[in-house]
């Protein structure tokens, strides 16, 4: 006899049964002809919170990574504790082999499953963008992930660039993430490249990296200069200089225009998101309280910074 509370719709608590499998939590309502079922994949559970016992029973709150919140109430504190411990273990496996992805067996043929591994074909995608062409070439220099462990085997570089330049640039970039083409608009050749921050510190520079960026800018004769967009706040980038990292110095690169966007780091984003979720869980807020809490979370400000970056790059 487990209750499922609904704080948002204001409905009466549902009564039903709670089941735990190796991969899912399943709640089945006892009443109603359809016997509504709620399925929650264990790997979706972010936190499990066991509250103090109340007159209704022992509350157990599940907050999921997809923002779903499930509030159960169990009659017995002992049973609630057992479920709590089980959920902690099942939702946070010690080995990655225990994750649901490794036990999932879709109803498809072996051929279909193998074809699924080929859904992403970088060479085909490059061809869609008109590559290779007179300015760009596709190289498999990273085929054994020797240049960068987080990049694909095939990367696109300007034809004028040598392998030595690519390797030299990678040594100058955090985690070897050399400037790499993400998208080319084949109508008039503007290109989007992505890379990590340079290991420039206060005074260090790299000839290979400078030559690589110059070669990239020369692939579009219609453009007078190249925009280098740093998504971080400038203060964060300057602080990284003390750790031997930082950002590109315009004095060392030909024809670049540098711009900071001001998107905060992942820790600030997580904190803001948590505040936003707390706002959404307020039971009976007034409009003034809701809007004030929403503003305090900073979430809309972060979203605006991201959209501003997208608009600037698109234009």
Task: Describe what you observe in this structure.
The chain has 315 residues and is α+β, with helices and mostly antiparallel strands. It has three domains: 2-102, PH-domain like; 118-262, no CATH class; 266-309, no CATH class. 31% of the residues lie in helices and 22% in strands. It contains nine helices and 13 strands. It has helices at 77-91, 110-116, 122-128, 163-171, 207-217, 234-241, 266-280, 287-297, 299-314, and strands at 2-5, 14-20, 24-29, 37-41, 45-50, 58-64, 69-74, 136-139, 155-158, 180-184, 191-194, 226-230, 256-260. The strands form four sheets. Strands 4-3-2-1-7-6-5 form a seven-stranded antiparallel sheet, with helices on one face. Helix 4 packs across helix 5 (207-217) and helix 7 (266-280) packs antiparallel against helix 8 (287-297). The protein starts with a strand and ends with a helix. The model has no long low-confidence stretch (mean pLDDT 91). GO terms for molecular function: phosphatidylinositol-3,5-bisphosphate phosphatase activity; phosphatidylinositol-3-phosphate phosphatase activity.
